[in-house]
Amino acid sequence: MASDRKPQAANSIPIRFVDEPEAVSDEDEMNGLDHHLSDEVDEPAGDASSGPRSADSESGGSAELLALRAELKRLQTALAESQEAVARRQADFENYRKRIERERTETHNRLVGDLVRKLLPVVDNLGRALDAERSMEASESKEFRHFLNGVELIAKQLNEVLESFGVEPIAAVGEPFDPHIHEAVVTEPSDEHEPDTVVEELARGYRIGDRLLRPAMVKVSSQKSDG
Asked: Is the pLDDT of residue 95 over 90?
């Protein structure tokens, strides 16, 4: 049996087997390719989505700016209208104040005028009495002259009261005749005065403000006729 074995050749080459890498199946290879392609597709998709988002933000900012401008214009218009309304109210109030002041003055002058008209005959008679007594003052006693001075003081106080109410006498003597404030009772030819000149005051006239209480009774000069 031993003789049947053949001796191994001395020059034989030993062969060693090395594990080869496992073969990649077709399914794994396709899965990897699909994953890679999906990554490449997803990346541009993300970039594309950012574009519309930025456009939306820009359009939103523009809309907000337009809204703010519209609101500012509205407020400016409202302010202008309010200022105009205030100006109108102030003008209306100023007109109202002037009208009330004018009506108050007219009412005051009317009431005072009605009272003064009733006092004027008294003032006239007191003045005539004083004029008459002055003409005889030299022949009167000392006591009577004192009494006359007292009456003159009363007449002066009465005139001051009238002046305090705004009552003013109308200028007459030496003034040109004015039919609006003078009433010609007598005309007298004169070489010393121009025609239609007041030469004498017969009864004093009075006014309160622009309101005539009584015209002055006057004598007026006229042109002297030749002959």
From this structure: yes
